[in-house]
Amino acid sequence: MALARYFLAVNARAGAIVKLRQAKPAPEGNAAGDLGREQRLRTAGVVQVRSSSELAAYMAFSLQERRVMAYDEQGQTVLLRFRSLRMVKDELQGDTRFFMKGNWILRYDALERQELIPGTRTKKLYLKYTSNYFILNKNDVSDFTAWLEKAHQTWDPEAASQ
Fold it and tell me: What kind of architecture, by CATH, is found in domain 29-161?
């Protein structure tokens, strides 16, 4: 009985989504709709990032409310045009300055401190310039530590030697 109610609810929700999609007006701007979309994104405060070098300027990325948030070195949070972290990961692929997990991406020099959560082997990774932190699963701690040491040796040799 509960399973039947579940399917009814899912089907009702899917029908509502289809109706919402049909009710959306056509995009403004040129034939492809790019001009109207660009303007809507700009007015919504969404930042257009055009290259991986522009992405690399941010310290960290996380997914919040189905939007990618970037954290810059001034402590500002910026909303990016990406809908998933997979798109950001594809842009940053091969850049060893970044450690990438399912819900967040961290640049090596963005880490202020690490804190072990009491009673677990899970860590909180606190970011510089913000009060935000990321959770690092206990299974990823050794990979993270090895990456962090290698990144500091590669990108910041004098800080690694101290």
Answer: Beta Barrel (2.40)
